[in-house]
Amino acid sequence: MKNLIAALGLVDWEAQFVSGLGHPMFGLQVQRRCVDGVDIRAAIQVSDCQAVLVSDATPRINQDLIAELADKNIKLIAITSDVDHWQDLGASHCIELDSNNPLSALKQISELMSDEPQPVEPESVPKGLLIAVAGFGGACGRTMAVKEIGWQLSKLGSKTCLVDADTYGPSLDQELGFEPNQNGLLELCRSIERKNVSVQTHFDLLPEVSENLSLVAGLPRISRWTDLRVSTLRELWRKSRETFDVVVADVGAVLELDHSLMHETSLPRRHAASLTALEAAAVTFICARADNVGITRLVRGYLEFHELFANSEVHVLLWGVVNDAQSKDVRAAVSRHTGIESIFETSYDFEITRKALQHGSFVSKLDSKNVIAKEFEAIATMLSKKLEQQNKTPLQLKPKRRLLKRAA
To answer: Around Cβ 178, how many Cβ atoms within 10 Å?
Structure first.
């Protein structure tokens, strides 16, 4: 006996159809009747079912719900007069509605449900390395770190992409001298949502900063964060790692746990871009100013949100170190209070950073012998070795997705 959830909406044949599904010859049982997509999402949390029936009249059905059903290995069967619409949403089981005899779909549903369930082949983990650059309370030097790490990795031969995922103040394209209307985060997410075959084309058409270095610009207006959805962003990080050897993401400096991500994944969330990037990142750099204010923000933020970094290798990047005594003190403070041993530091050279910003370029490109360039070269070498080691390991299987939880 197979269990179903029926959510056919306000159609005049709904009651008769549900009654027909219960006939013993079909071996089906309608476990629950739902009114819309929100009701379906609640029902699948408490019901053991193998399929959900919907129609063109079922409200609030979107790609996120269909993806959630697929993750739970629950079939979505759409009885529809517009098959293309449902296929665009991602539904793989569609039955054309016969308006003269809607009950004719009963037999097709029975045949779909009687098929032996096919084992779900686990997806291989993309070979690309995702690096998240984050911080707390401003995170001095975050965007510059993204630029310099990306430049150095591209010079080492890695196909690299810079992604501006800061939903509060994106500036990466501006710092590199690009127009704001380039292919960016919003356009890629829209293409993924439409399940458009041109997603790869969008990646291929990304503006090239230099050889082996591409740019995904941030939101054209910060108010457009409402167009970014959790499931789409997760798919974006996966596809970007399939396309590039290394993806360096600026995830902003305002990190906050959004508890609703645990349940309402279909709704837009202000921190979705940052949280999904941290969730997928293999390496995370936390930037902070090397003074009492910067270190305090770093320690407090890390202790409060340490679970965000549970799946990645965490490094600290301290800015504005002026002498050995200061270096020793701040390193000791960070290690003592956070337990993080991998700490990089860099000095602050106002003139060279001003020149790089003025020319829309990189410190490492303008002066490869500068101390800042040498420091980022060392970081890039370390990351390049990690990428080599990662690609030498046997092909891994995609781990089960873990929803973000509240830090203790």
So the answer is: 16
Joined tokens for residue 245: 């050897």
User: Does 378 or 112 have the greater pLDDT score?
Assistant: 378
Give the pLDDT mean for 264-277.
75
Q: How confident is the model at residue 62 (pLDDT cuts 50, 70, 90)?
A: confident
Beta-carbon contacts of residue 302 (< 8 Å; ≥ 6 apart)? 136, 286, 309, 338, 340
129-392: CATH number: 3.40.50.300
* Distance (Å, whole) CA 389 – CA 386: 5
Per the CB < 8 A criterion, the answer to whether 171 and 144 are in contact is no
For residues 204 and 250, is the Cβ–Cβ distance under 8 A?
no
Give the whole-angstrom CA distance, residue 408 versus residue 261: 17
Cβ atoms of 189 and 229 within 8 Å: the answer is yes
Sequence spans of domains, the chain = 2-114, 129-392
In CATH terms, is domain 2-114 a member of 3.20.20.450? no
Give the Cβ contact number of residue 84 at 10 Å.
Answer: 9
Classify residue 287 as exposed, middle or buried by CB count within 10 Å of its CB (0-12, 13-18, 19+). buried
CA angle 295, 403, 54 (to 5 degrees): 150
Host H or E run for residue 32: strand 28-33
Rounded to whole angstroms, the Cα distance separating 237 from 165 reads 11
Confidence of residue 377 (pLDDT cuts 50, 70, 90): very high
CB atoms within 10 A of CB 192: 21
CA distance 342 to 340: 6
Mean pLDDT, the chain, integer? 86
Tokens of 134: 């984050």
pLDDT band at 231 (very low <50, low <70, confident <90, very high): confident
Confidence of residue 328 (pLDDT cuts 50, 70, 90): very high
Q: How far separated are the first and last CA of the chain, in Å rounded?
A: 43
**216 and 164 in contact (C-beta within 8 Å)?**
yes
Mean pLDDT of 101-122: 76
Distance from C-alpha of 327 to C-alpha of 345, rounded to nearest angstrom = 8
CA 332, 337, 341, 347 dihedral sign is: negative
